[in-house]
TrEMBL record:
Name the record gives this protein: ABC-2 type transport system permease protein
Ranges that cross the membrane: 20-40, 81-101, 129-150, 156-181, 193-215, 235-256, 294-316, 342-363, 392-413, 433-453, 460-484, 504-523
Superkingdom of the source species: Bacteria
Source organism (scientific name): Kitasatospora paracochleata
Keywords (A to Z) from UniProt: Membrane, Transmembrane, Transmembrane helix
Signal sequence residues: none
Length: 529
């Protein structure tokens, strides 16, 4: 039997299983790129305005380290490539990483791959199918971004170069995830290894753009930037991520043929023979399962708070006298001064990201259920509500911790650069915590879907995507009021600096409580599995 037998069948299965999540990823990334192009066309209509904006960026070291240099200031496409090149490559890499690990190591961990492998399936077929699924997603992303930029009137060569740069970054990190899936023994560890590689690539790129330029050539994210779409279109740079992906894929194939199914090559630290008394309750078990992701998210929120808080004064200087930019900032963060508008927009963005963690924590219930780990817990004297409550503490209180950490670190950074440290340390954490009702409502919507329609649990991510796209892109493209009202994040007060009214916070919390109750009632009454 060929080592690649049944690859095509597994490839189709992977695409079918991701028929909801994958289009959501593609839509979200493409919409971010195209909305950025639309914003630049609105804000900087003339070439003189664009060149003036680029000159202000060149003198702002923090923005250059975050987004990279502008390689072409004469076109909307050049500014879009500057603004979304780095983060588009990061999102493409993250999408590919999650997809490959889901269909390789996570399948082994749950035992499904062992059942599949019992049929006429080649040893390398699952890995190949996962890589082909990631390649399909990356090529679709590149095609959608290219087509969108062409429809927006941008140059053909630059649009194609930008789309291929994002696709190449995704292909490289798909290969990184394939290698990590052979090294780690769990899906979470494999995602952690690949995520660490993605974070290191971003840091190296930031160091290179803010200091010695040669350092950015050590980063796959830097390679996507060095393609210089709309600014020279250096096609040969695309060979670097493709060559790296080929080498990593060869390593993954070599390892998959030498290890046992279900085993990883990195040594696992054995735990104690008997569980500690502190793990004797369902809540303690949930804490043990959820603490790793929470620690990782806390570190990420602290880093984001430091970056955005440190950029506060630079953002004020960048806006300058541009009325259109100031108007956009006001639509995103309220009309209470440029600095407060910027901080309010950033706090709102942090709330949206916290909602991603909240949905992930809620859907851990579904993971425990379908993997069979919930069944032995519920076989004892543990009710379903008690089991679910242990996990739901994390979207309830873990999100508060994330926002408080981000607000405190942002306050430290903003106060250190702009002055007024004591005031910033108070107002920014409070502004961040004001996002909680919208975060809780999003998590409660995911819980309602899980409890009432378990087979459609992935729709919780779709609900989250709709909320975020309306809240973030709606003010930019000037959606009507009824459309903006569909997202809970558009009902929050613009803090810091804005007026605080208790009514929207209270009714958002009430709706969240109603949705959570409906989800728990559904969980209590339906069959598990």
């Amino acid at each position: 039997m060929s080592a690649y037998a049944a690859t095509a069948t597994l490839h189709r299965l992977a695409l079918r299983r991701d028929r909801i999540a994958l289009p959501a990823w593609l839509y979200a990334v493409t919409a971010m790129v195209l909305s950025t192009a639309f914003s630049f066309r609105t804000l900087y209509a003339t070439e003189q305005d664009r060149r003036s904006f680029a000159a202000s960026i060149a003198g702002n070291g923090s923005l250059r380290a975050l987004y990279g240099p502008v390689h072409d200031a004469s076109t909307i496409g050049g500014l879009t490539a500057w603004r979304m090149g780095v983060f588009g490559a990061v999102l493409a890499g993250l999408m590919s990483t999650l997809l490959v690990v889901r269909h390789t190591r996570a399948e082994e961990e749950d035992g499904r791959l062992e059942l599949v492998a019992a049929a006429a399936v080649g040893r390398r077929a699952p890995l190949t199918a996962a890589l082909l699924a990631a390649l399909t997603a990356d090529l679709l992303l590149g095609a959608l971004v290219t087509g969108g930029l062409l429809a927006a009137g941008q140059g053909v060569a630059g649009s194609v170069a930008f789309g291929l740069a994002l696709a190449a970054a995704g292909v490289f990190f798909a290969a990184v995830a394939a290698l990590a899936a052979q090294l780690a023994e769990t899906g979470r560890a494999a995602n952690g290894l690949a995520g660490a590689a993605l974070g290191l690539a971003f840091v190296l790129r930031a160091i290179g753009d803010g200091g010695p330029h040669w350092v950015s050539w050590l980063s796959p994210i830097g390679w996507a930037e060095q393609v210089r779409a709309f600014g020279g279109d250096r096609w040969w740079v695309l060979l670097l991520p493709l060559a790296g992906a080929a080498a990593l894929t060869a390593g993954a194939y070599a390892l998959v043929a030498r290890r046992d199914l279900g085993a990883g090559l990195l040594p696992q630290r054995p735990g104690p023979a008997a569980a500690a008394p502190s793990l004797a309750t369902p809540a303690a078990l949930a804490r043990r399962l959820q603490r790793g992701p929470l620690i990782g998210w806390c570190a990420g929120f602290a880093a984001a708070g430091a970056v955005f808080g440190g950029l506060a004064q630079g953002a004020v200087d960048l806006v300058g006298q541009n009325r259109q930019v100031a108007d956009l900032m006001a639509r995103l963060g309220g009309r209470q001064g440029v600095l407060d508008s910027y901080l309010a927009a950033i706090v709102n963005l942090l709330g949206m990201v916290a909602a991603v963690y909240a949905v992930q924590s809620v859907l851990r219930l579904r993971t425990e259920e379908v993997s069979g780990r919930a069944e032995p817990v519920l076989a004892g004297a543990v009710s379903r509500l008690r089991w679910a409550a242990g996990h739901l503490l994390f979207p309830l209180l873990g999100t508060a911790l994330l926002l408080a950490v981000a607000g405190a670190v942002a306050g430290l950074a903003e106060g250190a650069t702009a002055g007024g440290l004591g005031q910033a340390l108070v107002r920014l954490p409070l502004a961040a915590l004001a996002q909680l009702p919208a975060v809780w409502l999003t998590a409660a919507a995911a819980l309602a879907v899980y409890g009432l329609l378990p087979r459609w649990t992935a729709a919780g991510w779709a609900v989250l995507a709709v909320f975020l796209l309306i809240a973030w892109l709606g003010p930019i493209v000037r959606l009507p009021g009824w459309a903006l009202d569909l997202s809970p994040f558009t009902h929050l007060p613009h803090l810091p600096g804005g007026d605080v009214t208790a009514a929207p916070l209270l009714w958002l919390t009430a709706v969240a409580a109603a949705l959570a109750t409906a989800g728990l009632v559904g969980l209590r009454r339906r069959d598990l599995g």
